[in-house]
Amino acid sequence: MSAQNTPGRRSVSPQPPAFFSPPSDPGYVSPEPAAQEIYGDIYLPTDPADTRSVREAELRNANKWEEVRQLERQVFEEHQRTLGQENAETISAAYEIAYTANDTGHSLDCERWTGWALQVGSKFLNPKHPLILKLNRLEGEILTDKGDWEDAENILANTLVNQQDALGPNHLDTLTTERALGVVCHALKRPEEAQNRLQHRLAALSEVLGENHVLVVSAVIDLVEISTPSPDADPYGLEKTNPKVISAEVGIRNLYNKLRQSVGPTNRVTLRALRNHGKLKILLGDITEAGDLLRRAKSQTEETLGPDHPDTMAAVVAMAILYAKTGTPRPGVFPAASRPWMELYLKWLEPRKGLKVAEVQNALAMLGMSYVKDSLWLEAEMCFEKLVMAYQGTKKQGSTEAQQASMWLETCRMTTRTMGVARNRGYGGGGNGGNGGRGGGGGGDLANLLATLGLGRNR
């Protein structure tokens, strides 16, 4: 999918992908608090001189995603009709469609539009054109989503260098790529390099936007997330005495309160801080308070962004981890209490991202083992059947994980044949007892939070 410049050679451009129409989003209007210790918008216009670009950013900040999609489609179709496909304005409009698809969890649509834009754009744009580089970044994020971290790192590292040369190290596009590369470094178990990249990004954003801008606060939360363990990686509760976790909880709590007072309780960054506060409370063993925080995060995120938004599903996953703490610790296996939350998450995840994404594969494996643990063989068979299909044609084909999935699939099939039970094709609610229901501020504060984590803004 990488862009290749082919001067002197013309071919018929492929047709763009079909537009997708997810359910309508709630019409939410961002509050305008009087006091703004933390200020600014999450989404900035691509071209401040273009009224439609400004309007698109306004709609994104107001979480009116269906109107965003309608506007993007209108702009793309107009450019395609009047300027043709092989025009930078048309490719830019396709990028905006791909960007929104990625940001709202529609990874497959993002991949289709990114691939089309790169295929057409590479015919007439230089490989180092800023638009091609933004598309390359999306390409790297798609590979990250799939778990192809080495390939993603290669694309993102090259894109970052090219953007630093073409746009400058402090350009917002450059810094967006640096964040994506930091995420990949973290996935590749290189935490120090990941922290360094995110710290550099934080320092640069502070210089460009001011240290109290909401995007700078969001960058601080990025650092907290990669600098503290995920609750699901702590099945035995060993992190509750970790000084870094204790300090991070205090810092995030204070940050959440400042966000709530300044940019409002339903700002996307405020909701993200609330969710992370709940996750840190899980690590500290404060299960009751964590439950209250995460239920509030899920409810407010669902009301603000909609039930199908990725941030809502992130709260659902956090609830699954919370309920996992009520059972007997067993790494990689969710107990029955948390299973309905994982079922809900997987029903959302699979059609949007496909079976080839590592996140889907991990969810299938954990849910399958949870079913096996409770002898729910039909549901387990469905999970492992999909998991075996997911590994085919990927780098994991023939891996230990793929072999284990095949082994469990055969075990499930033999067991269900012996039992003679009719097959049920859904997650949970199955014919042999599956459970388909649900279980049960300012600059000084940011600096203090980073200091408690052993992190700083120095480059």
Give structural notes.
The protein is mostly helical. Among the domains are: 116 residues, Alpha Horseshoe (Serine Threonine Protein Phosphatase 5, Tetratricopeptide repeat), CATH 1.25.40.10; 68 residues. It contains 18 helices and no strands. The N terminus is likely disordered.
CATH class of the domain at 228-343: Mainly Alpha
How many strands, which pairing sense, and closed or not: the largest β-sheet? none
Residue share in helices?
Answer: 55-70%
Query: Under the CATH scheme, which architecture of the domain at 228-343 would be assigned?
Result: Alpha Horseshoe
Structural class estimated from helices and strands? mainly alpha
The tally of strands reads: 0
SSE series? HHHHHHHHHHHHHHHHHH
State the low-pLDDT regions, or none: 2-8, 23-35, 430-441
Here the CATH topology of the domain at 228-343 equals Serine Threonine Protein Phosphatase 5, Tetratricopeptide repeat
CATH superfamily of the domain at 228-343: Tetratricopeptide repeat domain
Average pLDDT confidence is 88
Integer-rounded radius of gyration: 23 Å
Our count of helices gives 18
Q: How far apart, in Å, are the first and last alpha carbons?
A: 33 Å
* Shape summary: globular
Approximate strand percentage:
under 5%
Features:
single chain, 459 residues, mainly alpha, Serine Threonine Protein Phosphatase 5, Tetratricopeptide repeat, 18 helices, 63% helix
